[in-house]
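Ops channel
N.P.: pipeline sanity check, posting one input/output pair.
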């Protein structure tokens, strides 16, 4: 009798399910929603604006997975209590290890860069950020420099990353 073999997709789904079941109801650091509420809202808004780009939707669903990973290992919350420093890189590496496409990981990793870009380009963007987002921005390098902004704009997914950020910000409805 052949041993039961699970697909890589099933393994990845189970790992994410366990992570969200254990930590999804946790407060989304400094915001009025839980991690799972924020994740689902961000994906929902992304799907409404770009329904045919499944990788973009999945990336926004999982863009803050690095924070949940920190909670899983009971990591001390950094950035003045507002989450895991470099959560975007931690999360992107985790997604790659689970077998997600490179683009999904890249998009998830880029959501912080979008906040830095928008803070550089639009002064009123920063003033509309939540207090938690303002706090984390300081730990994430602050607003981009002009040179960083030019480089970021050259990314073929630049507009998609900005859309992700817009939906990320919208995904904080209690």
């Amino acid at each position: 009798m052949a041993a039961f073999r699970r697909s890589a997709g099933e393994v990845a789904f189970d790992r994410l399910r366990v992570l969200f079941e254990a930590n999804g109801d946790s407060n989304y650091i400094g915001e009025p929603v839980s991690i799972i509420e924020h994740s689902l809202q961000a994906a929902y808004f992304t799907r409404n604006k770009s329904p045919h780009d499944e990788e973009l939707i999945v990336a926004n669903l999982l863009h803050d997975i690095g924070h949940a990973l920190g909670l899983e290992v009971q990591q001390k919350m950094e950035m003045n209590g507002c989450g895991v420093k470099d959560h975007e890189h931690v999360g992107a590496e985790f997604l790659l290890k689970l077998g997600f496409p490179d683009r999904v990981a890249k998009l998830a990793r880029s959501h912080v860069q979008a906040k830095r870009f928008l803070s550089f380009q639009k002064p009123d963007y920063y003033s509309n950020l939540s207090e938690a987002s303002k706090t984390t921005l300081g730990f994430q390098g602050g607003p981009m420099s002009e040179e960083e902004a030019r480089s970021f704009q050259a990314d073929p997914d630049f507009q998609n990353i900005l859309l992700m950020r817009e939906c990320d910000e919208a995904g904080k409805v209690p």
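N.P.: looks fine end to end. The two ends are 51 Å apart (CA to CA).
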